[in-house]
Amino acid sequence: MRLDNRTALITGAATGIGRACALLFAQAGANVVVNHLGDHTQAQTLVHELQALGVQAWAVEADVSRATEVDALLVCLQSLAPPIDILLNNAGIIAEKPFLETTESDWDRMMAVDLKSVFLMCRAVLPGMVARASGVVINIASDLGYLGRAQFAPYCAAKAGVMGLTRSLAREFAPHIRVNAIAPGPVDTAMVSLESMSAETIELELAIPQHRFAQPQEIAATALFLASDFSRFYCGQVLGPNGGSVMP
Ligand SMILES: NC(=O)c1ccc[n+]([C@@H]2O[C@H](COP(=O)([O-])OP(=O)(O)OC[C@H]3O[C@@H](n4cnc5c(N)ncnc54)[C@H](O)[C@@H]3O)[C@@H](O)[C@H]2O)c1
């Protein structure tokens, strides 16, 4: 599954799943734009690791939940990197809170980072793909977008929204541009940790048939498949590397 001579833009790529995808895409020959928000050192370290694999790599900071920053990111890329062939919308946040304590600003922030960012990035990158009649978009959703989870209503709603957006864009931009999503189960990253979740939630996350967290590389393997020509008949699909949490 090679990605030679292609350029991938990965949002929220300095850590976790995004970082693993950047490394695997580079191993497959892709140039990588590492988007991050405030993770300068980690993003720069990753860029050096990617360049050591023999590809071109750039770090670009932007808050992808804000239209002005997404537009500035695209302007910056026009002079910095080749056209984007692969857009991986990975940036995301999670928050655990009882629904009745959820404020309007909690809701708006989750929607902005986990759902609106996908809209903004696709709106910015798709015109170039349309002009070249070629491109791949991969959106990171979550198994919780199907399952729902007490204390996580805004996150689950945003991730279900990502799946709906994926299907709509897949229909609108086929056949030349392929849009698909990944809905991972629990993955061993900072997002699923005692700093961000209660012990009860972590226990729930582990109560899946495989009884373990995925490593970020296991999600990256699915992303590489969707980015590559091996998945050329996949359109509007949501793939589920989830340890059995969802069996549609
Ligand atoms: N870890 C899991 O169990 C799991 C499961 C299902 C889905 N996911 C999804 O996978 C994606 C990656 O998460 P992860 O587990 O690697 O956690 P992570 O916290 O390591 O990665 C999220 C990244 O997004 C970045 N980010 C957040 N807001 C941003 C913004 N406004 N602009 C740009 N970057 C921003 C963060 O700085 C971070 O680098 C997320 O969309 C998450 O919802 C994770």
In a nutshell, what does this entry contain?
The protein has a single domain (7-239), classed as NAD(P)-binding Rossmann-like Domain (Rossmann fold), CATH 3.40.50.
Protein architecture, described:
- This protein has eight helices and seven strands; from the N terminus they run E-H-E-H-E-H-E-H-E-H-H-E-H-H-E.
- It has helices at 16-27, 40-52, 67-80, 104-132, 144-147, 153-173, 199-206, 216-227, and strands at residues 7-10, 31-36, 57-61, 86-89, 135-140, 177-182, 238-239.
- The protein has a seven-stranded parallel β-sheet, with helices on both faces.
- The protein starts with 6 loop residues before the first strand and ends in a 9-residue tail after the last strand.
- The structure holds nicotinamide-adenine-dinucleotide.
- Nicotinamide-adenine-dinucleotide binds at residues 11-12, 14-18, 35, 37, 39, 63-65, 90-94, 113, 140, 142, 184, 186-187, 189-192.
List the helices and strands and how they pair.
Blueprint: E1 7-10, H1 16-27, E2 31-36, H2 40-52, E3 57-61, H3 67-80, E4 86-89, H4 104-132, E5 135-140, H5 144-147, H6 153-173, E6 177-182, H7 199-206, H8 216-227, E7 238-239
Parallel strand pairs: 1-2, 1-4, 2-3, 4-5, 5-6, 6-7
Bound molecules: nicotinamide-adenine-dinucleotide.
Distance between the termini: 27 Å
**Strand coverage percent:** 5-15%
Identify the CATH homologous superfamily.
Answer: NAD(P)-binding Rossmann-like Domain
CATH topology: Rossmann fold
